[in-house]
């Protein structure tokens, strides 16, 4: 009866440890995901603000068109604005790609740590289980 209780406790402890080992990387990845979503959201809001500012600026300039000279100036500013917009879009796309690559690298790092810990733990358990089996064999040889 006492052995059954001890075995049951050992099994529950092993289950608890395995569950903890399983959820630790998931918790880290979830925290990283939330942090990354926050960064991306902040970045996108700032980008939206910049694009909106560009658009509003062009609309204000359009309301000031009164004659041929202001049409010419407005047309020139449109070309400049499109050039700036293209540059901004490329910069933003690069920034988003960099953020994504950083996130991917962090997830891979967490998964590698988890894999490494699991293999180390398995190796330790294998060694621990092999030692008691080796003692009776040595005793039998005497």
UniProtKB/TrEMBL annotation:
Biased segments, Low complexity type: 133-142
UniProt region (Disordered), positions on chain: 115-142
Coiled coil regions, renumbered to chain: none
Domain Phasin: 14-113
Domain of life per record: Bacteria
Biased composition (Basic and acidic residues): 122-132
Protein name as catalogued: Phasin family protein
